[in-house]
Design brief:
Blueprint lengths: L3 H8 L4 H17 L14 E5 L2 H9 L3 E5 L5 H14 L5 E6 L13 H6 L3 H13 L10 H12 L3 H5 L1 H9 L5 E5 L5 H9 L3 E6 L2 H10 L3 E5 L5 E2 L5 H12 L7 E4 L5 H9 L4 E4 L13 H9 L5 E4 L7 E4 L2 H7 L11 H18 L3 H6 L17 H21 L4
Parallel strand pairs: 1-2, 1-9, 2-3, 3-4, 4-5, 5-6, 6-8, 8-9
Antiparallel strand pairs: 7-11, 10-11
């Protein structure tokens, strides 16, 4: 439901033209007043939205920001379908694609088969996931062993593990479309990815969670860095956004004008204005779009997120084998409890967790109360600032208005 404030916001559409000029004037002033600039994308407002939902990507780009489609878990064929749909609906506005090519994971370079990877999973982990489901009256006995367990584990590997091996195929599909940005997480992009970006005139971004990582990325040749604080959803480091962004900005000064997008807990326009004053050239947001009407998240997850506080997320290795922030539920609590097995390395932990989470999602979708309690999703601490479900375009508009309010508040401090 859209609340009265959102309805009032929509009723002001007649003033959007003049508002756009006002916004442009303020943003131009901010750029001229600072030594770095935003040279890469022709967008009205420096907000980049990461989403696994193509509808959100299109809506954000058409609203003046830029949408980035998360391609993790996509086959080349599925990505082609989604990017073709985006091209047909985005009205020529810029958009990007995000991939996951980590520098390290179990079996990298060893040409391990799916059976080899499955053999590396101790039975204790299969029993543990089934026991957690059983406690909430969710039938997961097939996850203990047998053909069904084998099938779901192999399928789940496509979410992360198999994607590593077909990354070049995925990027070939992406570069066959008019994307403006390709981003990589969990390490320095491989040389061939950087070359593909340069050959196709597409900016290459890298997500970083530490100052040292940012320096390595720039020395490798990335065009911009997404500086992601520990508040962010999904894979994240341990340093807060408020500390990390100015730390990275200072560390990158010797390398020239390297654009920085700030990420992690930035759910309002006021926060956006503040972090740009600390050295960011724009923001990269994701969690705030998970509750939008277009998002891929289930109604159960949307309701949980809208009612969640900032402290109801957990940073854990239990989902992928690397630290990632997600909504706290009895499922995440079970992995943090005393006596729980230590999460396995990526992608083995994904092969443990994703089959169980799929059972939970499917049962929650048909109203199983135990499954609804267990269901989780990647999300950052900024979700505590989200208390409604509105459209992606309305969310961008809200950022713009809050950004202006913050600018005016700061400006008022200098007035007599």
């Amino acid at each position: 439901m859209v609340n009265n404030k959102s309805m009032q916001m929509n009723s002001n559409s007649a003033n959007h033209a003049s508002f756009g000029f006002f916004l442009l004037a303020i943003y131009t002033f901010l750029l001229l007043a600072r030594p770095h600039e935003w040279p890469l994308f022709d967008i009205e407002f420096p907000l980049v939205a990461f989403s696994h939902c193509r509808d959100v990507v299109v809506a954000v780009s058409k609203a003046g920001g830029m949408g980035v489609l998360g391609a993790v878990g996509h086959s080349p064929e599925k990505l082609e379908i989604d990017l073709k749909w985006i091209d047909e609906n985005i009205n020529g506005m810029p958009y990007g694609v995000d991939v996951l090519i980590p520098n390290s994971y179990k079996g990298k370079g060893q040409k391990k088969s799916l059976d080899d990877l499955r053999d590396m999973i101790p039975q204790e982990y299969r029993d543990f996931r089934a026991d957690v489901l059983k406690e909430y009256d969710v039938n997961g006995e097939h996850l203990r062993s047998g053909d069904e367990s084998e099938r779901t584990e192999k399928n789940s590997n496509a979410i992360l593990g198999k994607g590593f091996e077909i990354a070049e195929e995925i990027l070939n599909v992406a570069f066959s479309h008019p994307i403006k940005l390709v981003a990589n997480a969990l390490g320095v992009p491989p040389d061939w990815m950087l070359k593909m970006g340069k050959d196709n005139g597409v900016a290459v971004a890298a997500l970083v969670g530490a100052k040292e990582h940012a320096i390595k990325q720039v020395e490798a040749g990335v065009d911009l860095v997404v500086v992601s604080g520990t508040e962010g959803g999904g894979h994240c480091g341990s340093v807060s956004t408020m500390v990390l962004v100015p730390e990275v900005r200072r560390a990158l000064k010797p390398y020239g004008k390297i654009p920085i997008l700030a990420a992690g807990g930035i759910a309002t326009g006021e926060q956006m204005a503040g972090i740009m004053a600390m050295g960011a050239d724009g923001v990269w947001c994701a969690s705030v779009f998970l509750t939008t009407s277009e998002a891929e998240t289930s109604e159960n997850i949307k309701e949980k997120m809208v009612s969640a506080t900032s402290s109801q997320t957990v940073r854990s290795k239990s989902r992928t084998g690397k630290h990632s922030r997600q909504l706290q539920t009895p499922w995440t609590d079970a992995w943090e409890a005393k006596g729980a097995p230590e999460p396995l390395p990526m992608p083995l932990q994904t092969m443990v967790s994703e089959p169980a989470l799929k059972v939970i999602r499917d049962q929650a979708e048909i109203g199983h109360e135990g499954a609804k309690d267990l269901e989780t999703y990647w999300v950052g601490q900024g979700i505590g600032l989200v208390n409604e479900s509105i459209s992606a375009a309305q969310t961008v508009q809200k950022y713009k208005e809050e950004f202006i309010d913050a600018y005016e508040s700061i400006n008022a401090l200098f007035e007599e």
